[in-house]
Amino acid sequence: MDDFQLLNAGGEKIAVRKDLRVPMRDCVELAADAYHGTDDKPRPALVALSPYGKELQALALTTPPQRRPSPMWDGCIEAGDIARIVKEDYVHVIGDLRGSGHSGGEHIGNYNAGGVSLGQDAYDFIEWVAAQPWCDGNVGMVGISYFGSMQVLAAAERPPSLKAIFVSGGHYDFYETTYHGGVMWFMPRAAREGRGGDSGWAFTDNVKSRMIEEYPPAELKKLVEKRLQDPDVAAWPNLVHVLNYPKNHEAWFDIVMNELDGDWYEERNPITLAPKIDIPVWLQLDQGRGWTLDGTVELFNELKGPKKLDIGPYPPMQSRPFIEEHDKMFRWYDYWIKGIENGVMDEPAVSVFVEGSREVVTADQWPPKDIEYTSLYLRPRRSLSTEPEPMGADYAAPDGFYQAPLTVTDKVEILSWSTPPFEEATEMIGSGAAHIFAEIDQPDTNFILRLWDYAPNGKRQLITSGYLKASHRELDERTTEGNPYHPHTRTVPVEPGTVEEYVLRLYPFANTFMPGHKLTVELSNAEPLADEHNALLPPDAFHLPVGRPVTHKIYRDAAHHSRLVLPFTTGKAGKK
Q1: Do 288 and 534 meet the contact criterion of CB atoms below 8 Å apart?
Q2: Xaa-Pro dipeptidyl-peptidase C-terminal domain location, by residue (predicted)?
Q3: Which CATH class is domain 371-575?
Q4: Cα angle 518, 479, 261; round to 5
Q5: CATH 3.40.50.1820, the chain: domain bounds
Q6: Where are the beta strands (DSSP E) in 411-455?
Q7: Using one digit for the tens of pLDDT, what is the confidence trace for 554-571?
Q8: Cβ distance 17 to 34 under 8 Å?
Q9: In the predicted model, is pLDDT for residue 112 greater than 90?
Q10: Residue 251, number of CB atoms within 10 A of its CB
Q11: At 433, phi and psi to the nearest 5?
Q12: 209-239, pLDDT tens digit by residue?
């Protein structure tokens, strides 16, 4: 029997059913809390599922929301505004996934890909909630990031009682969640271990490594030794520790050991599962974390049922506890779950906030306007031009930089090229590409590229970014002009001293460069330790640096047209 309590939140009483036990089909029980109004009537429910712990989510009732760079910001308090959900007459049900919190069962590997499908558990959880006397049989879901990914996994299982989902800030392509352009991203470590300002998973003794479960000890030892031969990994103390003591970091160990895309990540990739989803889906994300926006757009294009794509303004990190986007969410659920005719489906499917002009453009597809891909060429004197360089390399000598590993320096070397100030407002919406002709003196390096909008007063805002590990430079058949794709299924070491073309995918963005502003592109092989953008991200939201010294020569002469390929808009769309 559950523990029924009455809480006082902001002067309003809330009923909470603590420590509910929710049976799964394999007899494992998940733990949950349910919050609702005090009068005795059934209501529709909004379900939130994660491994971060339901007790942590309860802080939404007592902790004022924090924004980055507040040190009180905790990325794992993501289940939504409990008091607001109850006030809108829904039941907020927060559950612990198997192997976490107060739930039973084992959690094996990343997203439990080595054990019971999390989508299967979500199906059972949702149908149990729908059958309770305090629920009217109609269920939606709520929550950002991991909670958002769980919504897609749940919807792909098609539980009958799940009527619609509203996903804010989800992560979808699991490989791109962890390796951006093949470059390892550290934020998943923070989410799992609780480093860098996150509480992390609410681990139990039943979280296990899929690698340890699947490989004999002797074979796994050889695989670990091979991974430690990567100089980037060997130069980073935390990774050396993880690989030598994997049982302390089970899920992170699995990610570090699988640096290539393939079955490991595709087995339960939400984008692969998306065609199975036929219920209404609203996808929302703010600009500034390009790889997540890329996956959001890709997921939107794969969905078959009623759908919305809502791209909001910079900055990238929402409050914790998560409280944003609830107004939109309740309009969506009031229509699809409560049957209230509020006109939400009479509005265009796609809404995009355009930085710079600060306009909202709407349409029924992404991009919301017609675009024409136009090249901006890297030129001497650190300039960008619509005209390519006419001179050969003897006269247009390459730019270059030497980057020492961060084991011996704190300085990150950055090359930059800029346009002249724009004379008229210039709008770009979509994804893009950077074609960089480079010579390096090592078998590998990182290419990290960031686009900035510089105002006349010197203030700047990040517009988009691109990442590529040099050994991952192969392109696949999906690649078109301005829209490159890399398979990331094998590494091809670079022959030192050869000039290669590296094509970086620039993640989707929407920006108008206003008169007097200029576009600046920065290129490096590591990220600055601190700048205006990084201060808005959690401390661990950076990428694995290169562990060896590398000299880079960037060619941009008549034979090597290093350039940006950017989505300049040409057509009109609706505006709000």
Answers
A1: no
A2: 330-565
A3: mainly beta
A4: 105
A5: 3-215+252-347
A6: 415-418, 426-440, 446-454
A7: 999 999 999 999 999 996
A8: yes
A9: no
A10: 28
A11: -145, 155
A12: 999 999 999 999 999 999 999 999 999 999 9
